[in-house]
Design brief:
This protein has about 130 residues and is mainly β. The protein contains two helices and ten strands, in the order ββββαββαββββ. Helices cover about 10% and strands about 45% of the residues. The strands form three sheets. Strands 1, 2, 3, 5, 6 and 10 form a six-stranded mixed beta sheet that branches. The protein has a two-stranded antiparallel ribbon with strand order 4-7. It has a two-stranded antiparallel ribbon with strand order 8-9. The protein is elongated, with a radius of gyration of 16 Å.
Length: about 130
């Protein structure tokens, strides 16, 4: 195992040190980011306060190629604040593992539940995670 410096941005930047095993992988060619468009989603709200945040890993293939990237996801914040029904809207560049790393991390996050008339309700939200090598 080797130590990696992992940085990601979630509305506000944060840096972490994480360890992950490295593996040999064949990386795809870089796609044209201009061909990838994020479509606006109806009924999507900004998530509330994050109570628990899991650190996303930096995909080995992307690190080996010195590639940064991002993933946009839409998800449901359940009544209890847990995350479910995660959908990847965009991964740039595609095929480097940012989508799976983002989904894996977000599935462990917890948010402050949204209250409507004093009762917790589920709602859809959007999140962008960005990876940059330092």
């Amino acid at each position: 195992m080797r130590l990696k410096a992992v940085c990601f941005v979630v509305f506000v930047g944060a840096c972490f040190n994480a360890t992950a095993p490295t593996a040999l992988a064949t990386c795809p060619p870089r796609p044209n980011p201009a061909s990838m468009v994020v479509k606006p989603e109806p009924d999507v709200e900004q998530a509330g306060k994050v109570l628990k945040r899991a650190v996303p890993t930096y995909p080995d293939c992307a690190e080996d190629k010195r590639v940064g990237g991002l993933v946009d996801m839409i998800f449901t914040v359940q009544q209890d604040g847990s995350v479910g029904d995660i959908q990847v809207v965009q991964e740039v560049p595609a095929g480097f593992g940012f989508a799976s790393a983002g989904v894996q991390a977000l599935s462990h996050w917890e948010f402050e539940p949204k209250l409507v008339e004093g009762k917790p309700v589920a709602f859809r939200s959007r999140l962008r995670l960005t990876w940059n090598l330092r």
